[in-house]
Amino acid sequence: MTATRPGARSAIECGSVRLLWVAKAGMLMVSKNRLAGLPDIESLKSLSQSLAMSDAIMSPEWESRYYSFNSKWAEGEVMATIRDGSGDEYFILFNPHGAIIKGFAHESPMSPYASESGKPWADVLDDVPDEFTDFLSDIVPR
After folding, report:
1. How far is CA 140 from CA 1, 89, 90, in A?
2. Which of 36, 44, 79, 141 could be disulfide-bonded to 73 (CB atoms 3.0-4.6 Å)?
């Protein structure tokens, strides 16, 4: 996502929350907006499974796949992933508490590598429920 001119917008949608970036005078701002049109958790899980199954049919070797879905991630948890082969990826954890998406796009202005601090953007992770905090620090998928 790149927003360079003032007023330019881009978004990532997840569950019932959309992160919206608005370029204001060269700075990107994050706001959270509720969107009724986003898929519910079960629909997102079903879509993730469908994409992974289609990819498995087209690419029998796991290393060649873009999408994957692990129905036995952990007790009561499943994991959907996407990897583009260039280092960009996302992981969606589904558990009895709901779902959370963790992603990395190395060219994103939100990447820890885009700042000198090497840390995620301020406030982005502040509202993550306690039930998902371990997932945020889980670096390598099982």
Report:
1. 24, 12, 12
2. 79
Q: Residue 87 burial by CB count (10 A; 0-12/13-18/19+): exposed, middle or buried? A: exposed
Instruction: For residue range 40-95, list pLDDT tens digits in order.
Output: 899 999 999 999 999 999 999 988 899 999 999 999 999 999 988 888 888 999 99
Backbone region of residue 22 per phi and psi (left: phi > 0; alpha: psi in -120 to 50; beta: other values):
beta
CA distance 8 to 39: 25
Summary mean pLDDT of the chain: 74
What angle (nearest 5°) sits at the alpha carbon of residue 128, between those of residues 118 and 76?
Answer: 115
In the chain, domain spans: 1-38, 40-137
pTM for this model (two decimals): 0.71
Angle at 82 between CA 76 and CA 87, to 5 degrees: 125
**Residue 46: strand pairing partners:** none
List the structure tokens of 74: 């952990």
List the structure tokens of 122: 């301020």
